[in-house]
Every structure is written in structure tokens, then in C-alpha cells.
């Protein structure tokens, strides 16, 4: 049994955890839910010994201590699985597995990996570098490693991002088995309520650094949502705008186009997008959707093929030419790739709209504050903005006449209210005739906001599915590599 | 054949200190720390090694002294860079300038003085073997030290648990911390070990390759070229050592070419190795160019070569890590 007692964790003035007390029983599955920034991950890092709490005590195995270290947590059987796997991409599988474990020979390590993966129906090549695995495989490897170290308390931080529905089911079955048969304590950190319903014996709800409630089944969805989001849950999400009838010139037409990135190349691809269309890209991490977006905007090379934009042909994809033609790319890594952390908001506006001279305060008011609800002083540096405000700033910097928006995970790290606002804005742009192509590791988000879904598998387009056929089953199966011809037969 | 063997022997001698320093810096950088103090370190340890060897009339004591100096300088960099979180680049750069001036100032009384050196090791009975004989029958001990260090570094880095931890902290200190590895301590250890090898390189200069002390000593600039060779070697000890020998070969061949082409001014041959290194770096890293990748994709059999070319810096090179801030 683990008891957390009055845990506080403060980062400067931010109280990530504000007096949390919690008891975890063996053999139970807990779901820790809450919005982004509610303090879930911080609390779990404290439990895994990766962060020292500002104050509070942890009672573990009958002993009360003020903080854990990674070594101590391992000895007490606590293991944590991160959303972005905390591993060594450049190093081979067996070394990743062995690092941090008691000394043994390479052959012994390989045998253990083989045995564990046989039990879990997985397969790992011990000498392959971890960078060649998918995120799902990397997480599974981490899970095997923790089990091998004798972890009896497993913390899984958003383990279902970036894996197929089928893999998710396997993982859930495994977790269920570990809890029921081997009396492990499982804590599932998630922002998806459906996963919590499916698996948890009790749901712990966090909001603004505090544990607001613990619920047992049967769960009442309305109560849960209100507890999680508070008032922000009340809000209207716009419908996906009706697609106008296809005109004579498509927005984007790709004719036997090849794209080549630093790691792999794709092609030939043929694809047409209409004005006003929202197109979602689905696929496991590294299946090709990243290169697809980066190729269209000119960040990766186009060695062969033709791309036409509003009827104008382009034989090479120069980033600046395409940008002037109306293509805008919004990366997932906003602070690293799209904003200047040390520049303030006004400087961003000046850089984005170089044609405007003189005092831009008024323009800032209309562009950012009124239309985007960006409540920050123009002197604020971009690095001080919350994720939601960063995305608002980025969207406000995109000129109104942009015709094709390419977005990587538009709502990454945003709370529910901000996410809804971002989608309402994007749909508004589509209703005015702009086209949107986006991807998200959250399959629900892709299905909800797309007129069509392009599914990628093994660095190629596996299928293009219309909205009426785009269900979790079909898209999930395509992501896992089932051929589209087979799937369409069974639906008919 | 005899001349060829002697040329190889000359390259091995000229390359030995470069190899030692290159391996030292490779170890340090593999752990994620950039030690820019190399050039000054080599000079100061060369001076100290010579001074100790002269004073105690024992060149091997000099080698130990040089290693201690190298490790001390690296230790200063490590403490300030790792534990106090200051810029490794700035500290290393300042240390380079400081150590160089310190070496000339403190070593003044040993300037142009006769002193002991490491001499040659004679291995009986192999002199008659073709090619092998002229190279190894009577060779400087620093060559054996360099060759042994190549093997030892490779074996340690890729065949031991400790080497695995070394690569882990350079690759992702956060993940290493999460596995219970004491990241800053490991980094400091390799900083010291790397510094000791750099100090050994300094001793190899003043006690074997360019015996004696003076201003200039003759090893000035070696530290900078070593920093380049580490990158050239893709942070792999064997490749880095080959790079160091290659550079030495360019320097040695300059001497021979000068005799063959007396009409070309001598400085051309002295300077030529540097642009040659840049050209070689370009050729070696050609696999990263887009158009080369396209060709490789069209002809998969080329993939083996392009994989061998691919080199990446340790992912966390130069990043500091503070476990108190947590993950």
C-alpha cells in the first residue's frame, strides 16, 4: 500500500500540486484524469522519484519518507512509463533494457527480453537501435523493462497516444491481468474519459493542482466532466462546415509526387484536396504523415513529381514560394519551431506583418485580443505564454488570405476550452474557403474534425476514407496495415 | 619496402599524441561534456611532463605528471561546467588561453634545456619480418601507448557496463537519471579520464615526438585539430584514431613531397593538411546530402556504405543537467 500525504510541489509561483493526499491499494487499477496542466504528471513524477516534492510525505512499504529517488523507487517496486518514452533512441534494444538493472551478460539480457516478449506476444530484435521502433513498441519495451525490474506499482502516463486501437486492447488486457492475477497497482494517467471507464476500479480527478474527487463505478459522465473541467465544460463546439460542391480547380493536386525526408522517402502519391476541405491524417508515429505535411510546405524535398496549388503548377517545392502562394505550416513543437521564445508578442506581430508600419498596438488589439481572446500584454515574451496562448498567437499570425493550412497536432498540450476555441477558429477558416490538412496522434480528434481521412501505413498512403466510412474500426485497421480492399468488402 | 615501412613508422609516431588526445576528448564528449581547453592542456602538460622528467631524471614520472595536469584542468572544467552549471564552452576557451600562458611562464627555466626522453623500445627478433620489422622493431613507447589506448577505449565503451552508462549519460541524461544513474558524477569521471589522456598526449609530445621544451614547443595547435578530428571520427574511438593517423599521414607526406617538388614553397605543404581534412570531412559525410540519399534509395546495395558513414553527435552533447530540477 502506498500513501501520499499532503504533497505540495511548487515551481516558482505555480502550484503544480497543492496538498494532495491519496491512498493506493494493491490489485487495483486507478485512472488519474484531469486537463493538461492539472498536475497529474507532476504527482506521478513525485511518486516515481523523478521529482522532489516541496513538502509532504510518502508512505511506502510501511516506511514514511519525505521524497523518493529513482533508485529508491525502483527498490520499492515503483515504475513509471512516460508519454514520450524516456529511453535512449541511439542505443540498441538490449542496452536500453539493461541500463539501470543489476549487472548481467548480454546473452542473459537477450534471453530475458525473449522470454518476456514471448509472454506478451511481442517481438524485439536486441541489436536494433530503439530509434527504429514505433512509439508503441518503445513503450512496450519500457513496460517489459519495468516488469523485469520487479515493479509492482506501474504508472502509465497517456500510454495510448500513438498506438493502434488493437494495440491498446492488448495493453489493457495485460494491465487487467497484472492487477487481477499478480496484485499489481496500476495507475493510468489519461485525459480520455473513455479509457478511464473501460479499465479503472476508481477514477481520481485532479483540477488545478488539487485532487477534487475520487469516483467509483458506476460512473456518471456528466458529474465527471463537470468535476474535470469546471465551468469550461459549458461551451459550444461548431459543426464541421458543409463541403461546397467541388469546383473546376482543386486547391491542391499532387501528381505522382515523391517526398524525401532525412530518414525515409515516399511516393509516388496522387491526391486532390478541394477548397474548404478539412483533411485529417491518421497513422502510427513515423508512418509518413509527418513527411507528407513537411513535403507539401517545402520543409522536406520533392525529388520527383508535380504539385499544383489553385491550378498553378509547381515542379519544386521551395518553402518561401509556397508560403507566398498561401501555404502555412504550423508545427507541433510551437516554441521550438514556430515562435521566438525570447521575443515579445508585439515583435512577433511586427515580424509576421512586415508591411504594416507605425504603431501596431491597435492592430494587436483587433488581431490578437479581440478575435483570439489572447489575454496577455504585448510586452510578454513568447516563452512565458501557456500552451493555449502560444497556439492562439500562432494562429493570429497566419494571414487571413492563406489558402492551405498544414497543422501538426493542433491541440497539443491545450486544455479543453482552448482546444475547442482552436477548432472553432479552424472550422471558421474552412467555411470561408481555406483548406486544412492536419494530423493528430489522438484518433478521436482526427475522426471528429475531418471531411476525409488519409491513413498512412509503412511510409505510404494506405487509404483515403470518406467521412461516412471513417470509423474507429476501419481507420484503426488501416493504421495497423490491413489492406483497404479487404476492409471495404467486409463493410459492404 | 624499407622506406615504406619507415614512413609508416614515422606516421605512427607523429600520430600517437594526436590519437591519445583524440581518444580523451572522445570519451569526454561521449559523456556529453565539451572540453575546449585541449590546446592549452596539451601545452601545459607537455611542459610539466618535461619539467618533472628533467628534475627527477625519470621520463615515466613525467608522463604521470602530465596526466595529472590534464586531469586537473578537466576537473576544473567539470566542476564549473557540471556542478555549477556554467557554459562549458566559455570555461574551456578561457582555460585554453590561461594554460597556454601559464605553460610559457612557468616553463621558462626549462626552455632549451637538455632532458630525458622516453627513448625507443627494441623488440628483438622481429627486425627481419617484412614491413612489420621496420615499423615495430625499434619504436617509441608512445606508439604502443596510443595503440593500446585505442583498443582499451573501444572495449570499455562498447563491451562493458560502464561504457554503456557513459553513452547513456551523453545520449539522454534525463533517461539516465530515471534509471538511477548518477549523471553528474559519471560525467565528471569521464571528464577526468579524458583529461588524463589529453595530459598523456602532452607528455608524448615533450618526451618523445618533439622532445624538449621551448617557445614554441611545436605542439601548438594540436589541441584544435584534435577537436576537429573527434567530430571527423563520429565520436567513435576507432574511427577517431584513424582520423588522427590520417592527419599525421598528411603531415608526414608533406615532408616527402617537399623533397620531390622543391619548387613549391614549403609553407604550402605545412598548411595543406588542414584544407585536406575539411575536404575529407565533406567526403566522409556525403551520405547526409539529399541527392546522395536519393541515389542510395534507388540503389539499395549502396545502403551498407551509407550506413557506415552515418554519424551523429551524442544527443545531449553540451547540455547541462540538474537532477534537483527533476524531469
Assigned CATH class of chain B: Mainly Alpha
Radius of gyration of chain B: 21 Å
* Number of structural units classed as domains of chain B: 1
Helix percentage of chain B: over 70%
So what's the overall shape of chain A? Answer: globular
Mean pLDDT of chain B: 89
Q: Kindly name the structural category of chain B.
A: mainly alpha
CATH architecture of chain B: Orthogonal Bundle
Radius of gyration of chain A: 24 Å
CATH architecture of the largest domain in chain A: 3-Layer(aba) Sandwich
Which terms summarize this structure?
heterodimer, A: 492 residues, alpha/beta, Rossmann fold, six-stranded mixed β-sheet, 18 helices, B: 327 residues, mainly alpha, ABC transporter involved in vitamin B12 uptake, BtuC, two-stranded antiparallel ribbon, 15 helices, 70% helix
Overview of this protein structure:
The complex is a heterodimer of chains A (492) and B (327). With 492 residues, chain A is an alpha/beta fold. Chain A contains 18 helices and 20 strands. Chain A has helices spanning 40-48, 70-75, 93-98, 106-119, 135-148, 165-182, 193-199, 221-229, 289-297, 319-324, 334-338, 345-352, 361-372, 387-397, 416-431, 443-448, 472-479, 484-491, and strands at 2-11, 14-24, 29-33, 55-60, 63-65, 78-81, 153-157, 185-190, 202-207, 210-215, 252-260, 265-273, 278-282, 306-309, 312-314, 327-330, 404-408, 435-439, 452-456, 461-466. In chain A, strands 6-7-8-3-9-10 form a 6-stranded mixed sheet, with helices on both faces. In chain A, strand 9 and strand 10 (210-215) form a beta hairpin. The radius of gyration of chain A is 24 Å and the shape is globular. By secondary structure, chain B is mainly alpha-helical. Chain B has a single domain, classed as ABC transporter involved in vitamin B12 uptake, BtuC, CATH 1.10.3470. Chain B contains 15 helices and 2 strands. In chain B, strands 1-2 form a two-stranded antiparallel sheet. Chain B is globular. The mean pLDDT of chain B is 89. The interface between A and B is medium-sized, with 26 and 26 residues.
